[in-house]
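Reminder: ligand-aware prediction takes two inputs, not one.
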Amino acid sequence: MGDISVLNQQFGIAGQLEFIEAAPGMIVAQINNEQASASIALQGAHLMTFQARDQQPLIWMSPAAKLVPGKSIRGGVPVCWPWFGAHASEAGFPAHGFARTVGWKVVDARPLVGGETFIAFELPQTAIPQAQWPHPCRVRLNITVGAVLEMALVTENTGDAAFPLGEALHTYFPISDVDNVCVSGLDGVAYRDKVTGMDLKQQSGDIGFPSEVDRVYLDTEASCDIVDTGANRRIRVAKSGSRSTVVWNPWIEKATKMGDFGSDTGYRTMLCVESANAAENVLTLAPGESHTLSVTYSNEAL
Ligand code: TA6
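Here is what comes back for the chain with 6-O-phosphono-beta-D-tagatofuranose:
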């Protein structure tokens, strides 16, 4: 618990930000201000919950999520970095990179003049497995908790050689039921369909969820809306520095196999709209260059 008292002394904000041990070895920053509440695990700088005052939760967390050191958490906003999905050549490397399962460091926390709370995390050099990622870099995640949720993932190449960068804010959203929702904003956009072996296809109209959906939409910086007639709300995902949007719902068979979606019908109450640079949109970061992927999440009544 020593770490927690040091963290609270250094970064705690009376009545607004407190660090707690939510499960053995899992420290969580709990934020509560006049506009919203949120919780963020130091492992993975993983935002687990966010709810604006007087509104429904904006982020989905599985009721069966396990808070265990070294395991990724099912729900919230996993940070996929420095690759998305399977590694391009090494089958033994972890899916979605290593950043989501290692401890990040809090480097800044303060109240903002508008009433929001700002907190920033850095991926410590010592947490980067050199065998998987020998490239010198600095990685930071900035989070602003206010009436809307803002997240910015910043990667800086501090070495003298370029490196490839794949990434995503793999955000899980709560929905009333898969039958009641569609995702708009991607009409006409080309995508890789993971369900059919990464075939290249083109979106026509809005996206529905009558079966498994696992798609990487390419070359799109458009905002997306999750329109949920059952919950009477529209969730908006607005982004910059991201050329791919991933849309995912595992449906029953895959969710059951993964085993951490809660009940058999847990998959019906979530979907992911992920702001990413993936597949053909993997970036190359030159020496000295810095890249920022930022996303704003908000919601309104229909
Ligand atoms: O973003 C969609 C996806 O890549 C799916 O293919 C799916 O397996 C998912 O992410 C979850 O991955 P995880 O490693 O967290 O179980």
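The chain has one domain: 4-301. Residues 72, 85, 95-96, 170, 194, 214, 246, 248, 258, 272, 274 surround 6-O-phosphono-beta-D-tagatofuranose (CB under 6 Å). We will return to this case in the review session.
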